[in-house]
Amino acid sequence: MSNIVLYGHRVADFVNKQSKFERDISIPRDDFTSIVEQAAKARPTENWPALFDNGQRESLLITFDDGWKDFLEVALPILEDYDVPCILFVTTEFISGTSIPFEMILEHIVSEVPEVVLPGGKTIGREFGTRDDIYDAIRKKIRPLAAEKRSSYVKDLRRLNPQVDWAFIDSSNEFLNWDQLRWIDKHPLVEIASHGAKHSLLSRLDFHNVYFDLSSSRRELEQQLDRNVRTISYPYGSNSVLTRWGARLAGYYFGFTTAAGTLSATTSRMAIPRTEFRSFLSLG
Question: Distance (Å, rounded) from C-alpha 99 to C-alpha 141?
Answer without folding.
Answer: 19
